[in-house]
Specification:
- By secondary structure, the chain is of the alpha+beta class.
- It has 15 helices and 15 strands.
- Strands 6, 8, 9, 10, 11, 12, 13, 14 and 15 form a 9-stranded mixed beta sheet that branches.
- Helix 3 packs antiparallel against helix 4 and helix 9 packs across helix 11.
Length: 450
């Protein structure tokens, strides 16, 4: 007898509908119910009725938010961001697998200085399942789609050219899912999530910047690089928390502020990194005091919600605390020019510290005393901790701490080892921290706050 394989069940990434009838049936379902623009399969009544009985603000543009298929990630992404996001998960999973084969040199995150939560990730049990999920998604991503969402301007943009004004102007109109995320109209986050955030806080790891310095020194593809102050923590999300990247980046900037005396009024933050709920309170208090108050009208309020925040909310918080900052909008109608402007701005920022010191004997890498940069583009934000120039093609690279991803056990195992750091493939270890043209080419506009 010949065994017949059980048909593969496919699940719609938008609504969870499941089918065993193959990829064509799934694509037909997605085109019918989740098409970008007007689907030929829908009646006029279907087009004008809000989904799931929820109201619309009229400015959502019904963005295609997709939940990451990797177990425990919980992130909702614009469709145009999914492929690169999955590549980074592949890299993350591979790095974790490497750590299993070398347990003596790769301690768990819970043993790393500065870590505030234990990792429940078991690479040997999850890597195969995650790899299958990633492969299935990459097959789906080959279907015709539009990345036009990533070409919209960032929310609350001024109309001028690149600006160095101290505050990004706001329009004050109620925003929707395109700007505030999947939960733009949510009044309150679920109790289980609030409990998780209160009990676990965040994953924070100290000592990563010096490790990056050593990896860059070892890396044959690096011509030169600059890094921010080595005290900055990499803060990443908890398993299942979803998208709080704006808050996580404010926390990373705060990790610098609470450990140095270089910035006026930094002491107002106290001696510990503010929680998500404390950051929400700072922002709401700023609005109460008529600081960037249009943010309240645009968001409908953020306290105890999962709505995305961005540069305007960071501006409100730092203005409330009277911590000096500079916010820039960098944009160009051509994506390559926008990326060039971003790279030039970041490189000049790090080169501006005349007190930077060489981190090792090679002289390729300089550690500065500068704060990291809050970096925003449509749909996501990160913390820029450095700049790298590659030998090949003279290409620029942003060096970032991305709240979406944790440091691999291989990298955390190098903390505190100084010049003793040895890695056979430093390019590979740096991949999760680099953002270059492959990532940035999707966008025409960026925001940087320093």
């Amino acid at each position: 007898m010949t065994d017949t394989a059980e048909p593969l069940t496919m699940e719609c990434p938008f609504c969870g509908w499941k089918s065993k009838e193959g990829e064509y049936q799934m694509l037909l379902h997605m085109e019918t119910l989740h098409a970008e623009g007007e689907s030929p399969f829908l009646t006029e009544q279907d087009r004008t009725s809000p989904p799931n009985g929820t109201g619309s603000t009229g400015n959502d543009d019904d963005p295609e938010y997709v939940e990451c298929p990797v177990d425990g990630c919980g992130e909702f992404l614009l469709l145009s961001q999914v492929e690169y996001h999955l590549e980074l998960h592949t890299e993350e999973t591979h790095a974790q697998d490497l750590s299993v084969s070398e347990p003596t040199s790769s301690p768990s995150l819970s043993t790393v200085p500065g870590s505030s939560s234990k990792s429940s990730h078991n690479p040997s049990e999850t890597s195969t399942r995650q790899s299958k999920a990633i492969s299935a998604w990459k097959r789906l991503l080959k279907m015709p789609s539009s990345s036009s969402h990533s070409h919209h301007i960032l929310r609350r943009r001024n109309d001028s050219k690149s600006s160095s004004t101290s505050e990004i102007k706001t329009r004050g109109t109620r925003l929707g899912r395109k700007h505030l995320g999947r939960y733009a109209h949510e009044d309150r986050m679920p109790d289980w999530l609030a409990d998780l955030l209160r009990k676990k806080g965040q994953v924070q790891t100290a000592g990563i910047v010096p490790v990056l310095a050593q990896l860059l020194e070892l890396c044959p593809s690096t011509d030169y690089a600059y890094l921010c102050h080595p005290c900055v923590y990499h803060i990443s999300k908890l398993k299942r928390e979803g998208g709080f990247c704006g808050y996580r980046n404010i926390q990373m900037l705060s990790s610098y502020l609470i450990q140095t005396t270089a910035i006026p009024n930094a002491h107002k933050l106290g001696s510990s990194i503010p929680t998500i709920f404390q950051i929400q309170d700072y922002i709401e208090t700023a609005w109460d005091n008529n600081i960037s108050v249009s943010g309240r009208a645009e968001t409908g309020g953020i306290r105890n919600t999962r709505k995305y925040i961005g540069t305007p909310e960071a501006v409100a918080m730092f203005r409330l605390l009277q911590i000096p900052f500079n916010a820039q909008s960098l944009k160009h109608k051509e994506q390559a020019k926008a990326e060039e402007l971003l790279m030039k701005t970041v490189e000049e920022y790090f080169k501006g510290d005349k007190g930077a010191v060489e981190s090792g004997e090679g002289g390729k890498v300089k550690l500065t005393g500068l704060p990291p940069l809050y970096f925003q583009h449509l749909g996501h934000s990160m913390t820029i901790v450095g700049f790298e120039r590659l030998r090949e093609g003279n290409k620029g690279m942003l060096l970032v701490f991305d709240p979406h991803f944790k440091d691999s056990y291989v990298v955390t195992g190098m903390i505190g080892r100084g010049t003793e750091v040895v890695h056979p493939f430093p390019d590979h270890a740096l991949k999760g921290y680099r953002r270059g043209s492959k990532y940035l080419r999707e966008y025409k506009e960026f925001e940087v706050l320093r």
